[in-house]
Every structure is written in structure tokens, then in C-alpha cells.
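Researcher: Quick test of sequence recovery. C-alpha cells follow.
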């Protein structure tokens, strides 16, 4: 998967990689040429005390060194640019794919794992690209060219290269093989740390309310220690690689000097040639060492690439049709025909035999006990899930035949847990309609009973909102989410238990304002509180995934035992008549 991923995402940056190859080639040729010039200076200049020869050849060496430095800097610059581009493209691809996921795929991977895959895993692949591009030509060129140049200097000492290089490769290969499972384990443990930390930050109030700080601290410490332990074990192996390389390098250098000294003594070799041979041997082993560092990074990058590829290969269970219908949604009439839904691997369906029609200009309410399937039913309406049986229709067209963007463009959804994005009140409201005027924003806030508290906030519409809306109360968050849907002015409004945090007075005023402002639109209200739906044109009573009652409030009091039980548990006796 790693190589497939690299080939795909390096293709747009091939011009940069070509520039890297050219400059690294120039740098490598310069590096291979310098030891020969150095040998000539020693044998012809120093040995014969020829100062002019030393200065002229030294000037050439200095110019080549400067050229080498310039080429190295340019090559690293282009390599870094290509690596950063790959990282950017990978993060963008993951973000786009996750944005296409339905709730089912997001739940399958989990938010902490998706965050790790789009940050830490991408960074591992990005670092490998940088290292590979930096050493793309240098390592093989120095190793192969170094062998050729060393043999040209002295054939009889070349057996040392044939011994040193295989020894180094075997030692590094053994270390790398032991690192692979550790890197795989480390990425999973990083996922665990992210999950624990995310849970603790999100549920900080619950942690404090139940005095669980010490227990949660211990839980995080265990996850942190697991990562640390795995990282230390992998780090020890990585740290061992450098001493092994240096041991082989130093032993080989000593061997060259030892055996070369005998050849100098019998006159078959000059001092400059020995120094040049030693330089080429060091170049060969250093190039192997560079390849070693890259090889050490490959296992972890391969694990990360597999995890990234898993996300990119996963298709959303909610896919746009191949030939989507272009018909516009005009009335927002919602119809469900014998709809059923079962989660993958579940023994029993969550919903079965659901049939009803929510008409334009009317309010359809759905009520039921906890676990009756209300939220799952809501997710089927805007096609966050696809029904496993039956059909969900919008204005007579199956929602699976409409392009998701077209469908969502005509739905205003206020979820059970309203979420606000970091920014301002204005930026959150403009999610509903980016080109909305200020008058439209204030009108929506007024209908949602949020105008008064927004006016009191410092900055009004430009008052800051923290991530998740944690700097406003639950009721204020709900009202801002409702206002965001109202700004959009869709044909179909879906309120998923969106009034639960409001007091009864605010709830009543909001419902009256909604009735006036959404005339002609289709309203679907999912509620726990009977008082929120008593005026609905149609109430559906949901129990164990089935509709067990249907009618107005007064009709259901006479015909539905389940509804009467819900009413009697919430309202006083005088409110039930």
C-alpha cells in the first residue's frame, strides 16, 4: 500500500522530483570527484613540494565544494516542497473522504482514529517522502560510484568493501525486521491516547461531577505509558542502528589503513591513493547508513500508509446515484413507505414497517420512549443512513435518486445535540445561508427566541463562540442551532428533540413563532415532551421501532394506550383533558 500511495500522490509533484534528481546527481558527481583530486594533491603536490599545483588544484576543489553545497541546498528545498505537497494532498484526500462518510463509517473508525490518521500517520509518510527524495540519487550514486572509484584506486583492497557492505546490510535488516511490529503497535496506542484524551475533555463536567479525576488521570497515565513503552523499545532499536553502522565503518577504516600500510611499504601503493580509497570506503558506508535511516522509517510509514489507505478505500454506505435526478424539491413533502433499518451485524432491525407522509404546511410530530428508534428515523430523512428496506421519498422522488447536495440543500436539520463551530454568532448562522443579510439573521434569532441574549452578548452578532458552543448554555446553544436552520429557509424542517433544554414558556413562544414563519414548509418534530407537540397536525407514536399510534393529540388520547401512558407520566391530570 505504501508504494501505491506514494506513486499516486507523488505524480503531481514529478517536476519537483526531477529537479531534485538533477541537483542530487550533480552533488553526487562532485562528491565522487573530490577524493581523486585530494589524492593527486598529496601524491603530486605535497610529495614533490609543488606549491603552484597545490594551489591550483585546491582552488578547483574549493569551487567543486561550493557547487556541491549549492546543489545540496536546492535539492533539499525541492524535496521538502514535494514532501509538504504530498502531506497536504493526503490530508485533503482524507478530509474529503471522511466528509463523504455516513454515520456508519465514522462510527466504524472512530473520531480519535480518524484524527490520528489525518495527522500523525500523514506526517510519517511525509517524512519518508522527504528522506527518500533527499537521498533519492545520493545514496545509490555514492555507493555504486564509490565502489567503481575505489576499485580504480586499488583492486587488491576492494575485498574489504565486499565484506563490510554485506555485514552492514545484514545487521540493519535484522534491526528493521524487529521494528515493524513495534511501529504497528505504536500507531494503535496513539489512537488510544487520542480517544482517552478526547473523552476526558468532552466529558470534563461529568468527570468532575462524579469526582473521577484520579481514576481518569490513572486511565490516561496507563494509555500514555503504553505509548511510551512501545516508543522506547522502538527507539532503542533505532538508537542501536547508528552504533552498528559506526562500528562497521570504523573497523573497515582501520582494516584499510592496516592492509594499505603494507602495500605502501612495498611500494605498490601511494599515500594519496590510500587516503582516496579510504574516502571512497567511507562514502560507500555512509550512503549505506543513509539508506539505513530511510529503511528504519519505511516500516512505520508502511503501517501509516496502510491506515491511510484503509480510510481512502472505504466507500460511504450513502453514495450519490450514478445518474441523479435534477428535479427540484418544491414542497418538501416527506413520505416513508414500509421503511426498515438494521445496523450491520445486528440481530434485530431498529425500525420496521414505518409508513407515513409529512405534508407541506403541516407539522408531523414523532414521540416515543428512549430507544424506540426516533433518532435513527431522523437520520434516514436527510439520508445520513440509507434504509435497508422500503423507500424514503421527497416530493415523490426516492431520496437515493437525488444528489445528496440537492437533497441536503432543501432540509434544515437541528440535531439532538446542537453543535456550534468556533467563530462568532454570525459565522455560525451563515452556515445556513452564506449570503444572508443582517436583517435575515436577526429575524431568525427573533423567531428562535435568541435575539434577546445575543443582543446582551458583547459584540452582538460578532460575539465569539468557542468550539462546540461551550461558552453558551445548553438552551442558548439549541436556540442558535434553530436560528441557523431558520436562516436557510428550507422546504423541510427536522427538529430532533430540539426544545428539550428550553423552559416551557420559551418553548411555547418558539413554537408559536415557528408556526407563523414556516407556513407552507414541512415540519417534522421529534420530541420527548408532550407539551411541545400538542398542536401538531399529526402525531406518530413510536415503540420498539414500529408506529403504534397515529393521529392528533386528542385522537391519540382516546385510541393509543402507549400515548396515554406517555401523557400521564408528564402532564398533570387537568392537562390531559
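Model:
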Amino acid at each position: 500500500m505504501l508504494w501505491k500511495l506514494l506513486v499516486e500522490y507523488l505524480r503531481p509533484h514529478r517536476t519537483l522530483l526531477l529537479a531534485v534528481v538533477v541537483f542530487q546527481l550533480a552533488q553526487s558527481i562532485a562528491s565522487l570527484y573530490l577524493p581523486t583530486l585530494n589524492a593527486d594533491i598529496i601524491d603530486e603536490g605535497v610529495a614533490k613540494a609543488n606549491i603552484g599545483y597545490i594551489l591550483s588544484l585546491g582552488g578547483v576543489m574549493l569551487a567543486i565544494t561550493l557547487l556541491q553545497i549549492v546543489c545540496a541546498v536546492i535539492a533539499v528545498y525541492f524535496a521538502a516542497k514535494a514532501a509538504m505537497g504530498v502531506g497536504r494532498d493526503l490530508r485533503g484526500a482524507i478530509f474529503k473522504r471522511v466528509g463523504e462518510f455516513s454515520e456508519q463509517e465514522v462510527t466504524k473508525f472512530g473520531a480519535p482514529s480518524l484524527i490520528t490518521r489525518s495527522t500523525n500517520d500523514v506526517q510519517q509518510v511525509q517524512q519518508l517522502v522527504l528522506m527518500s527524495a533527499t537521498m533519492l540519487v545520493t545514496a545509490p550514486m555514492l555507493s555504486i560510484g564509490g565502489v567503481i572509484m575505489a576499485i580504480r584506486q586499488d583492486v587488491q583492497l576492494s575485498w574489504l568493501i565486499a565484506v563490510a557492505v554485506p555485514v552492514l546490510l545484514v545487521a540493519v535488516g535484522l534491526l528493521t525486521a524487529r521494528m515493524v511490529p513495534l511501529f504497528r503497535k505504536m500507531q494503535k496506542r496513539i489512537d488510544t491516547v487520542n480517544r482517552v484524551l478526547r473523552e476526558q475533555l468532552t466529558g470534563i463536567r461529568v468527570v468532575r461531577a462524579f469526582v473521577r479525576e484520579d481514576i481518569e488521570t490513572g486511565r490516561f497515565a496507563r494509555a500514555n505509558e503504553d505509548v511510551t513503552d512501545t516508543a522506547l523499545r522502538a527507539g532503542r532499536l533505532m538508537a542501536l542502528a547508528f552504533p552498528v553502522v559506526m562500528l562497521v565503518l570504523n573497523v573497515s577504516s582501520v582494516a584499510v589503513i592496516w592492509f594499505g600500510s603494507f602495500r605502501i611499504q612495498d611500494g605498490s601503493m601511494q599515500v594519496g591513493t590510500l587516503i582516496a580509497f579510504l574516502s571512497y570506503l567511507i562514502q560507500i558506508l555512509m550512503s549505506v547508513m543513509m539508506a539505513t535511516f530511510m529503511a528504519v522509517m519505511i516500516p512505520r510509514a508502511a503501517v501509516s500508509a496502510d491506515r491511510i489507505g484503509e480510510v481512502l478505500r472505504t466507500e460511504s454506505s450513502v453514495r450519490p446515484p450514478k445518474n441523479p435526478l435534477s428535479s427540484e424539491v418544491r414542497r418538501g413533502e416527506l413520505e416513508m413507505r414500509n421503511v426498515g433499518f438494521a445496523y450491520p451485524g445486528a440481530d434485530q432491525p431498529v425500525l420496521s414497517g414505518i409508513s407515513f407522509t409529512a405534508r407541506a404546511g403541516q407539522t408531523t410530530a414523532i414521540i416515543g420512549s428512549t430507544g424506540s428508534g426516533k433518532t435513527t428515523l431522523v437520520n434516514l430523512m436527510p439520508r445520513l443512513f440509507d434504509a435497508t428496506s422500503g423507500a424514503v421519498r421527497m416530493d415523490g422522488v426516492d431520496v437515493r435518486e437525488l444528489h445528496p447536495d440537492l437533497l441536503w440543500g432543501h432540509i434544515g436539520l437541528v440535531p439532538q445535540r446542537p453543535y456550534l463551530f468556533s467563530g462568532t454568532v454570525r459565522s455560525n448562522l451563515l452556515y445556513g445561508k452564506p449570503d444572508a443579510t443582517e436583517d435575515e439573521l436577526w429575524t431568525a434569532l427573533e423567531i428562535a427566541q435568541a435575539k434577546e441574549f445575543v443582543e446582551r452578548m458583547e459584540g452582538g452578532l460578532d460575539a465569539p463562540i468557542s468550539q462546540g458552543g461551550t461558552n453558551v448554555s445548553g438552551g442558548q446553544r439549541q436556540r442558535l442551532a434553530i436560528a441557523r436552520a431558520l436562516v436557510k429557509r428550507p422546504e423541510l424542517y427536522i427538529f430532533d428533540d430540539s426544545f428539550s433544554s428550553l423552559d416551557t414558556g420559551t418553548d411555547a413562544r418558539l413554537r408559536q413563532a415557528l408556526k407563523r414563519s414556516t407556513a407552507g414548509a414541512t415540519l417534522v418534530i421529534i420530541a420527548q415532551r408532550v407539551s411541545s407537540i400538542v398542536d401538531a397536525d399529526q402525531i406518530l407514536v413510536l415503540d420498539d421501532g414500529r408506529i403504534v399510534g397515529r393521529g392528533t393529540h386528542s385522537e391519540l388520547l382516546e385510541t393509543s394506550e402507549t400515548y396515554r401512558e406517555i401523557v400521564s407520566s408528564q402532564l398533570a391530570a387537568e392537562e390531559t383533558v
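The domain at 353-410+491-501+514-577 is CATH 3.40.50.300 (Rossmann fold).
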